[in-house]
Amino acid sequence: MHLKIHHIAIICSDYAVSKKFYTEILGLNIVREVYREERQSYKLDLAIGDQYVIELFSFPDPPERPSRPESCGLRHLAFSVENVSNTRTELIKKGVDCEEVRIDEFTGKAFFFIQDPDQLPLEFYER
Q1: Domain spanning 74-127: which CATH class is it, in words?
Q2: Of 37, 74, 114, 122, which residue is 20 to 30 A from 66 by alpha carbon distance?
Q3: Spatial CA neighbour of 117 closest among 41, 37, 11, 27
Q4: What is the rounded average pLDDT of the residues 95-124?
Q5: pLDDT tens digit sequence for 48-65
Q6: Where is the VOC domain (predicted)?
Q7: Model confidence at 121, in pLDDT bands (50, 70, 90)?
């Protein structure tokens, strides 16, 4: 069996805020946006370049996701970037609160975290 990641699904509490964050702040491209009347839900398909990666959903009154303390399940999403310092500087200029750059003790690579509008941890990891 040869597996590859197809996409990651994220449920947001405020669709407009999350759509703006993922498209305008992170720069993901919109592939498709649909409103599903029967579910009262938007579904926004997003891509990095030409690779489809994230489905952003809205649902009426979703429960909050615990981020702290860390709980079982998906811990965070990590994006590979060419230069961590440049990426961090660009995000700070866009008003994003960024953690300090750290070095992975096992790989020697630089990384840092931010949170999306629903406090989902997002990591930026140097290639």
Answers
A1: alpha beta
A2: 37
A3: 11
A4: 96
A5: 888 888 999 998 888 887
A6: 4-127
A7: very high
In the block, tokens 């592939």 appear at 31
63: β partners: none
Strand 121-126 and strand 8-12: pairing?
A: unpaired
CATH entry, 1-61, from 3.10.180.10, 3.40.190.10, 3.40.50.300, 3.40.605.10: 3.10.180.10
| CATH 3.10.180.10 intervals, the chain | 1-61, 74-127
Torsion on CA atoms 40, 62, 98, 25, rounded to nearest 10: 0
Which residues touch 15 (CB under 8 Å, ≥6 apart)? 42, 44, 56, 58
- Tell me the whole-structure pTM to 2 decimals: 0.89
